[in-house]
């Protein structure tokens, strides 16, 4: 029961996500091309107030928020917001879709683009995958097993005392 309460808390608190993972980060020519960042995004569930961390070297890349239309055309000429200093932290401050790309010439076309859908982060909303920090199922069942053993022992001790 204690274990369950901890997992619920972890599901609702805001998380940081390093875009593309710690080793690849935010780069042009990601392994496998543009599908790399869509695969990365589909591995996570983003909720309001989570933060995306774009890891890149100043002067080598940048990151901008674009409209859907400009994102699809890889037009980085008009940005909604842009960040030139890496690592750039972008808080997903509303539900809905966000479209990102690098504004360096050719980088969007070579796959440095990311779209994410952000869901409202309250516990009653759509089911989501457990965050990577949650307690593994085996540990959880182990904990409840020892809790059960503990309570059983307690009950026996109680019975034998009277
Ligand atoms: C997505 O998750 C799968 C399964 O854990 C993993 O093999 C893959 O590398 C991940 N993809 C990205 C882009 O992080
Ligand atoms: C997100 O953060 C803002 C500012 O801290 C806060 O006012 C808002 O309630 C938060 N929203 C959610 C869904 O957690
Ligand atoms: C962006 O601006 C550059 C330089 O002004 C121009 O060459 C290019 O065609 C523009 N791209 C789009 C998609 O409008
Ligand atoms: C929580 O989710 C419910 C149902 O999906 C929604 O009606 C409500 O507005 C959400 N609350 C917040 C604070 O986003
Ligand atoms: Cu770039």
UniProtKB/TrEMBL annotation:
InterPro entries associated with the record: Cupredoxin, Phytocyanin-like, Phytocyanin_dom
Highest taxon in the source lineage: Eukaryota
Domain Phytocyanin: 15-120
Name of this protein: Phytocyanin domain-containing protein
